[in-house]
Specification:
By secondary structure, the chain is an alpha/beta fold. The protein has helices at residues 92-109, 115-121, 175-189, 231-238, 314-328, 345-351, 364-376, 389-399, 423-432, 444-456, and strands at residues 11-19, 25-29, 32-36, 44-52, 56-66, 122-126, 137-144, 150-152, 154-155, 162-163, 203-210, 217-223, 244-251, 263-269, 273-277, 300-304, 335-339, 356-361, 382-386, 411-414, 436-441, 459-467, 477-484. Bound molecules: S-adenosyl-L-homocysteine (SAH). The site of S-adenosyl-L-homocysteine (SAH) has 18 residues, from helix 6, strand 18 and helix 8.
Length: 486
């Protein structure tokens, strides 16, 4: 078709036929591909051209001419301006379908596996029963509006202007009263909010964590300074809230986007909260289970500090980890490596059913937490090492004697960050020849790339399943089981 050249701000009709990785709408017209934020698959829109390149461009929704059949009324009035959710206007069912397709598509396109093979191995996506109020952690930026009032909420998409949303529907109900206490206290005691441009002001962020099982609350105030003024007054007001367990101050005087600084000082109660993750007995159990949040025999306890990495969606984490454990196929006799183990969340799940678990993690503090969590739960069969998986694993491989159980694990579990596993890590995994590899992934593109390497190295995919850990966003987690070819 003839290329009709559009200019910036031109208005044109566009049918949205696909969805991008971040939930943005995609439409094609006159040989061009357009990416449109807040347009949904199935919409016909009047689009306004924004940034244009040779074969693709970005456009805005000027008007929805015919709405998609999958459009729903978003619960949050700020869903468009706020950067937190991307696809709240899409029905939850369709969101799940999108995530399943995203994983499937990447494995086929990037991994080079056949559609038939993947369709045979891929299980239905695991969604939430109630896809709101699922986050156990929230970080609210604090600022000042044009009239000089203290504001808190979330950053607008791609900017640092604060949209006042104090009761985000992805977060717990407990957040709003905490923020309201802090705001009142700031106004009364003239505590200045931090200003990113000038680097002046005191309070930068408020971090809140909530234990879904224990109902324990942690509040951490991130400040640009050494001390909090009128601290006792704030503490006494926060203590009126049920469940308050840990109040701390984190010092961050740097001009940076990184929220937390290096030093945290507990100003009331404990420096951590405790929460539990419960084991689901079988992976079939992961769909449609009601969420009880009681402490059971198979629950593992975790201590969580302000700095700890801890999965933010406890409901889905239980399903994800129970599936990973099920795929590991443990009987009590196995030696298992858990690479990228963080605070040992998966490792301790594995330790319940394995002979021995070795965890590897790059962040020293996380390994400290992992060791403490092992003690807390009475596991003496989990050992943890600080370092890069791609260095620690090859190092052991080089130095240990043949026949050592560490060299011949039955199972290797990996849960890498978005960039996936390093080649040196995958190479050593292949040399170790475990019977099973369980790959937990937060980025299906790098998962697909790594699956290809593992399958070329003598493994085959047995099961793939996507999990919705982050409803209303474009993110998706995946668990994949690979077994050694005989
Ligand atoms: N399995 C854990 C953490 C998964 S997140 C859990 O579910 O809680 C990925 C972890 O990999 C992070 O803790 C991060 O610090 C760690 N990490 C990042 N790069 C690494 C590397 N090269 N080697 C080992 N760990 C790494």
């Amino acid at each position: 078709m003839e290329n009709i050249t559009l200019k910036k701000n031109d208005i044109f009709e566009l049918e949205i036929t696909d969805m991008g990785v971040d939930g943005e709408g995609i439409g094609h017209v006159d040989g061009m591909t357009y990416f449109v934020k807040d347009a949904l698959i199935g919409d016909v829109i009047k689009a306004r051209a924004m940034k244009l390149k040779k074969n693709y461009g970005y456009a805005r929704v000027e008007e929805v001419i015919t709405p998609s059949a999958f459009r729903v009324e978003p619960k949050c009035p700020e869903h468009k301006r706020c950067g937190g959710c991307q696809i709240q206007a899409l029905s939850y069912e369709k969101q799940l379908e999108f995530k399943h397709e995203k994983v499937r598509g990447n494995i086929i396109r990037i991994g080079g596996f056949s559609a038939e093979e993947i369709d045979e191995k891929m299980l239905p996506v695991v969604g939430m029963e109630e896809p709101f109020r699922y986050r156990n952690k929230a970080q609210f930026p604090i600022g000042t509006d044009k009239e000089g009032n203290v504001v808190t909420g979330f950053y607008a998409a791609r900017t640092h202007s604060i949209i006042p949303v104090e009761d985000c529907l992805l977060g717990v109900k407990e957040n709003a009263p905490i923020l309201s206490i802090i705001k009142d206290w700031m106004n009364e005691y003239h505590i200045p909010a931090y200003n990113e441009e000038t680097g002046k002001g005191l309070l930068r962020h408020v971090l809140i964590r909530f234990g879904f099982t224990t109902k324990e609350i942690m509040v951490c105030l991130i400040i640009n300074g050494k001390k909090l003024t009128a601290q006792e007054e704030l503490v006494s007001r926060l203590l009126e809230l049920e469940g308050m367990t840990s109040i701390s101050v984190n010092i961050n005087t740097k001009n940076t986007n990184v929220i937390l600084g290096d030093v945290t000082e507990c100003i009331w109660g404990q420096s951590y909260i405790t929460d539990y993750i419960h084991l689901r007995t079988t992976s079939d159990d992961v769909v449609g289970t009601s969420q009880e949040f009681e402490v059971t025999d198979t629950a593992v306890a975790y201590r969580i500090s302000p700095q700890s990495f801890y999965q933010v969606n406890p409901v889905q984490t239980e399903k994800l980890y129970s599936t990973a454990l099920d795929y590991a196929g443990l009987t009590g006799e196995e030696y298992v490596w858990d690479l990228y183990c963080g605070i040992g969340t998966i490792s301790l799940f594995l330790a319940q059913k394995a002979k021995k678990v070795y965890g590897v993690e790059i962040v020293p503090q996380a390994i400290e937490d992992a060791k403490n969590n092992a003690k807390l739960n009475g596991f003496d069969n989990a050992e943890f090492f600080v370092g890069k998986a791609e260095e620690v694993l090859p190092e052991f491989y080089k130095n240990l004697k043949a026949g050592d159980a560490m060299l011949n694990p039955d199972v290797i579990v990996v849960d890498p960050p978005r960039k996936g596993c390093d080649q040196a890590c995958l190479d050593t995994m292949l040399k170790m020849q475990p019977e099973r590899i369980v790959y937990v992934s937060c980025d299906s593109a790098t998962l697909a790339r790594d699956l290809r390497i593992l399958c070329d190295g003598g493994y085959e995919i047995k099961k793939v399943r996507a999990f919705d850990q982050f409803a209303h966003t474009g993110h998706v987690e995946t668990v994949c089981l690979l077994t050694k070819l005989k």
